[in-house]
Amino acid sequence: SQHFCDTCNRVRLTSWGDLVLCLGREDRVNLRDALRSGADDASMQVLILQAVRRKPLGHGFQNHQAGDDAHPHAMATLGG
After folding, report:
1. Residue 4: helix, strand or coil by DSSP?
2. How far apart are CA 20 and CA 65, in angstroms?
3. What is the phi-psi region of residue 38: left when phi exceeds 0, alpha when psi lies from -120 to 50, beta otherwise?
4. Cα 77 vs. chain centroid, distance in angstroms?
5. How far is the CA of 33 from the CAs of 7, 27, 39, 41, in angstroms?
6. CB-based contacts of 15: which residues, under 8 Å, 6+ apart?
7. How far apart are the first and last CA of the chain?
8. Tell me: the pLDDT tens digits for 35-46?
9. Whole-number Å distance between alpha carbons of 27 and 54
10. Which of 25, 23, 48 lies closest to 35 in space, CA to CA?
11. Is 7 helix (H, G, I), strand (E, B) or coil?
12. What angle do CA 22, 69, 74 make, to 5 degrees?
């Protein structure tokens, strides 16, 4: 498959409130806890923008030495 990470503009929101930044890594941000603690729209916007800026430049689908957080997700587990 083609390398697409540098142009990827997608994140996924799970039903349990995690914003998954990359299908090939475990990096995620818990939005549910922020919402439940009363975060307003501006705070949520900052949290989401900070998360998107952390999106990795690559994944570890073909390289098993991509790092400790490399863990490809099955699309079905994320609703995709």
Report:
1. coil
2. 21
3. left
4. 13
5. 29, 16, 9, 14
6. 79
7. 18
8. 999 999 999 999
9. 9
10. 48
11. helix
12. 50
Q: Which residue has the tokens 């039903």?
A: 15
Maximum C-alpha span of the chain: 42
For the chain, the structural domain boundaries read: 5-78
Whole-number Cα distances in Å, 68 to 6, 24, 27, 31, 71: 20, 11, 11, 23, 8
pTM to 2 decimal places:
0.68
Exposed, middle or buried, 40 (CB in 10 Å: 0-12/13-18/19+)? Answer: exposed
Residue with tokens 């949520």: 44
Locate the DSSP E strands across 8-52: 12-13, 18-20, 28-30
Predicted confidence (pLDDT) per residue in 11-55, tens digit: 889 999 999 988 777 788 999 999 999 999 999 999 999 999 988
What pLDDT is attached to residue 50? 95
Both structure tokens of 31: 């939005």
